[in-house]
Structure formats: C-alpha cells, structure tokens
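Hi R.,

Quick one: here's the UTP--glucose-1-phosphate uridylyltransferase sequence you asked about.
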Amino acid sequence: MPVTKAVIPAAGLGTRFLPATKAVPKEMLPVVDRPAIEYVVEEASRAGLRDVLLITSRSKKAVEDHFDRDGELEQALERKKDEARLGRVRASAELGAVHSVRQGAPRGLGHAVLCGAAHVGDEPFAVLLGDDLIDERDPLLPEMLDVQARFGGSVIALMEVPEEMVSMYGVATVDPEPVLAGRRYQTVRIRDLVEKPPVDEAPSNLAIIGRYVLSPAVFDVLRRTQPGRGGEIQLTDALRELAQAGDEAGQPVHGVIFTGRRYDTGDRIDYLKAVIRLACERPDLGPELYPWLEEYVASGGPKADG
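And here's the predicted structure, written out as tokens:
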C-alpha cells in the first residue's frame, strides 16, 4: 500500500531547553523565523504525506494551533496589505491535514508511536522526529518511501557517527553488502538493533536518526514490548524484534544511510549551529549576517568583548 500518513511525536518535556520551554513547547522554538516543527511537517508534505498526526501532550496546544488558520491575524495583515507575512502565516495551515492525539504519559517513543495506531490503521506510515531537521536540499524521506515500496516491511534512516558518540543513539547491525547501489544514499539490510550501547559493545557506528517508514506490524510488537532503557517503551526494541524475525515474518527491515545535511535541534549547541547556518544561507539575512559573523570571529569573539 502507498504511504500517505506521517506521525510526528511532539509530547516531550524539552527539559534541555529550560527555562525557555517551561511555558513554550520545545517544538515551537524558532529556527530563524519558523518553529522547528513546521520544518518537519513541511518535509512530510513535500514527500506527499499530507495526512499528518501530531502526538502531543496537554501542554502542547500551541503546536496544534500553529497549523490552524488565524482569521484575526490574517485580516490584520490583509488590511495592512502585508502580502509577504500573510503568505508565511498561511503557509503552515496549507501543508496538509494536521491532526493531533495526546500521549497521556511520557512512556517513551515506542508508546508515542503506538498512540497513532487508530489513526494509521493497517497501512505503512512514516515517523518523523521533531528534533531532527533534514535539509530540503538533501531529500531523505522520498528515498526511504521508495525503498519501502520495493521491499515492504520497515525502513530506518541511519547515519555514520563518531565512535565515541554511539552510546547516544540506537545502533544497527547490517549486512556488509548494500541492497541497492547507484543511488543517492546506500540501502542496507538491518539484522539487529541495540539502544544506546556502551562504546565498546556497539556493533557499528551506524546510528538511527529520526526518520522511519514503518509497517503497521510494528503496532502489534509495540503492544507487547516491555519497558526497556529508562523504563520507557523503546521503538528500537520493537524494530529489533522485526529485524531479527526478518524473512520468516515477511517483515524485512532496511536502512538508508544518510550522508546529507542534518540539524539536531534537541541539543542546545547544535540548535544554535542550525539557526546560524540556516540564517547565513538565507538570501534575505545572509548578506548582512555572514560578514558580521566573520568579523566577530576574526576579532576574537567573546575574548574581545571580555
């Protein structure tokens, strides 16, 4: 079946960004002049997935409101004939049909995905994590959708990371030979997965990043998956069961090894780097910002100011 739906977990507390996220959802923190979550929904929409389900919590109403129309604001901009801002305000509401369901308790990514079961039904679907922004110049999701259409089962985005960082990610064991060659990104068969292994026990440096195209079979596995690392229901544990069952269950798990530009907005330093990089590349901001940044660095930066 073709993939038409995307699930975006957005129920996390955002503790790494406190106190900014005490009253503002972390997904609404601006990346230049748009909230991070809008980049993710836009990515799904560009890939043809215009039926989007947000997994939220009671403190995330602002996320839901962002993808709704704001008649009062639009009328004010219309009266001012501010067409540029009016277009940007309306853009978020035109990305697709955005729905939401609440995750009652923070029980892990696996549980968040399971909250989307009723909406997804018996169809393959995509999962996009809001902390990972994929540069639109390096499209990843369309290639993952193509791999899923070819082989069925589930597809996970992987990325090579430095060995000392593997304990921060889920890590994959893969077949040595790629399944598909001559494509933008290499496709491999995944045989096993482990969540945040110690560095000396990691089977590879291929880390799971926040993009998945999943078979609906994952829901049945998640329903019986016991809490794992951190006392949470881990999506990695459920996908590990599917990967180990492999051909016997008719549910292969493949990995697409991403080599493009990715911005981790879940970490404060990486978030700031993402804002700076994307702002410098904007034609309306870069010509002024980049020379200032060069001058600031050349002057010694904070040392000069101190």
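The mean pLDDT is 89.

Cheers,
M.
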